[in-house]
Amino acid sequence: GAVVSQHPSWVICKSGTSVKIECRSLDFQATTMFWYRQFPKQSLMLMATSNEGSKATYEQGVEKDKFLINHASLTLSTLTVTSAHPEDSSFYICSATDRGMADGYTFGSGTRLTVV
Amino acid sequence: AQRVTQPEKLLSVFKGAPVELKCNYSYSGSPELFWYVQYSRQRLQLLLRHISRESIKGFTADLNKGETSFHLKKPFAQEEDSAMYYCALSGQGAQKLVFGQGTRLTINP
Known about the structure:
Chain A has about 120 residues and is mostly beta strands. Chain A is built from no helices and eleven strands. In chain A, the strands form two sheets. In chain A, strands 2, 4, 5, 6, 9, 10 and 11 form a seven-stranded mixed β-sheet that branches. A four-stranded antiparallel β-sheet of chain A has the order 1-3-8-7, with no helix packed on it.
């Protein structure tokens, strides 16, 4: 089946620095990728939707200048958390899909970000 | 706007008993409904989607447009069914997938 690789699986960074998270579709071309944030014991909150070659569409309340999303190719999307602060600490999950995929949406394993 | 509601945060049943995880949705167009499962320390996995009408691991879910529901059912729960279950909704054609709050299912021996 379709596989999405997300890297790194965990990262610790200092407050004020930036962190990049990668999401790759390994055996299919992901026309659309999604980025979610999950707080402990809570559901996945959609942050943004990105289509290859175009600007990401952010959900209401998500700061586009803080969470930079790039989807430059059909197999790679990146999320950069800029000037990270402790409140950005969370679990970030990407998802990818291609139109007509039998499984619909495939999820990465997630990245645990801790800002100290 | 898309909205998915899972009214039960926690659900505990005994092994062998029937299970029903509730999901209600709100969407103005034609929805695609999904159930995802997340086992401990694993990534989200698709359990089933309404358009495939399959039964996976003994689970079934029927889309009831009149009641705007997509409840997940299993006649006889097994211990390995203990996990977090999320109901999700998207519009047609790879549109954004919105999740419910999730239900943590615990199967007691």
